[in-house]
Design brief:
Structural class: mainly alpha
Order of helices and strands: HHHHHHHHHHHHHHHH
Number of helices: 16
Helix content: over 70%
Number of strands: 0
Oligomer: single chain
Distance between the termini: 19 Å
């Protein structure tokens, strides 16, 4: 049996690497482009880079069948190794292209997104099948904490390097870091290799009621949590903040706040259940976005308050909610084809994120930041009771499915 600590470290390292790319693409790059006076509606096109994450369920069955051969060790590590090398080369190409070559840069970012999203199929399947249920909390903390650490590096350290050393050096540094982090997963122990008689398929996932509920929960959570975050970087730039200051806040502040709130979220899920934590996070998000809407309408709110609101919204509150959401994702996923199941749930997240990211740029450009943040706050508030209801039903269905599996295996109930 693989060491839980080794699995958690490997999964966490890979999530850090993936999220460096996400933070660079969706948080840092919009700020860099806005400083170079690109229009907001064009900046919103960066969310096309979410496409591979939104549609990776189309190739997830093929990846999962390759990853889990009928006999022998899983091939998770080889998939992650190839994906990491492609991503690193893509970042080097991005450094050579420069931020002003918008369309070539977007094409390279799409290639990187394809590589990392494919690696993620293997990573998530590896985590679900290798970690026992009592260690799922550690896995969720590694996923969410690693994601916020990586996002802080991609959005914070990257911006500081761009401001101080230039675009090329920043991209090359991120490529080197990506390779180092990927090695944490590649050198981790391989999971057991029993014979496998289950053929992973998309149909098996989509026919289950608990998967339908999980997909709905993912969509509601993204609408409420992520739609209000995508234009916060440009808003802060337009409010007078420079790239270096924004990078320091996103980096140090985002890393500290996101990581701490991920740990708090894990503890609260154990104490109160995922349903309560999800609803709490959405209500807090509505309050933070309301504060940003007020600041945008008023126009003379001090930068310290803007930074506190933006940091709470994009790092603290989202980390709190996503620990609970990922706990539900693991509960829904069938260990025999976890790469497919977890991928489906993440694809819903990515698809809704892409639609909201592109639409948010249009709303902010044509109606102003005040209306944009106000609408996002209303969506978050309306989503809280819906998310709580869906979360409760997901947990109930997962308990039923677990009981059925235990009965078939001859395991007494409750063990």
């Amino acid at each position: 049996m693989s060491s839980p600590l080794a699995v958690v470290l490997g999964v966490g390292g890979l999530y850090v690497g993936q999220s460096i790319i996400g933070g660079l693409t969706f948080i840092a790059l919009p700020s860099v482009l806005r400083e170079r006076n690109l229009p907001l509606d064009q900046i919103g096109l960066l969310y096309l880079a979410v496409l591979p994450w939104a549609f990776k369920f189309l190739w997830a069955p093929a990846v999962e069948r390759y990853r889990l051969p009928p006999t022998g060790h899983s091939r998770s590590r080889s998939i992650v190794l190839v994906g990491g090398l492609i991503s690193a080369v893509g970042l080097i190409l991005s450094g050579l292209i420069g931020p002003t070559g918008f369309m070539p840069l977007l094409a390279v970012l799409l290639l990187i997104a394809f590589a990392t999203s494919t690696s993620d199929i293997a990573c998530d399947g590896h985590a679900v099948e290798t970690l026992s249920e009592r260690h799922h909390g550690w896995g969720n903390a590694a996923q969410v904490g690693g994601a916020y650490l990586g996002s802080a590096i991609g959005s914070g350290l990257f911006l500081v390097l761009v401001a101080q050393c230039g675009w090329g050096v920043a991209c090359f540094a991120m490529a080197a870091l990506l390779i180092v982090l990927g090695l944490l997963f590649v050198i981790s122990p391989a999971p057991p290799s029993p014979g496998r008689d289950h053929r992973p398929s998309l149909r098996q996932a989509l026919r289950r009621k608990d998967m339908h509920l999980g997909l709905a929960l993912a969509a509601v959570n993204v609408i409420a949590q992520k739609w209000g975050v995508s234009m916060q970087g440009p808003f802060l730039i337009d409010s007078g903040l420079d790239l270096t200051s924004l990078g320091i806040v996103n980096g140090i502040g985002g890393m500290a706040v996101g990581f701490v709130c991920a740990l708090i979220g894990g503890a609260l899920v154990r104490m109160w259940s995922a349903r309560v934590v999800l609803a709490l996070a959405l209500v807090l998000q509505a309050l933070a976005l309301s504060g940003l809407a007020y600041a945008a309408w008023k126009g003379d709110v001090g930068q310290p308050l803007l930074l506190v609101l933006a940091l709470a919204s994009s790092s603290g509150i989202m980390a709190l909610g996503f620990v609970a959401l990922y706990a539900q994702f693991m509960a829904v996923s069938d260990p025999r084809q976890a790469g497919i199941d977890f991928t489906l749930l993440q694809c819903m997240d990515a698809l809704v994120s892409m639609a909201g990211g592109m639409g948010s740029g249009w709303i902010a450009q044509h109606s102003g930041y005040g209306l944009y943040f106000g609408l996002a706050a209303l969506l978050a508030l309306a989503a809280a009771p819906i998310a709580a209801m869906l979360s409760h039903r997901v947990a109930a269905r997962s308990d039923i499915r677990k009981g059925q599996r235990e009965a078939l295996a001859g395991v007494p109930s409750g063990q």
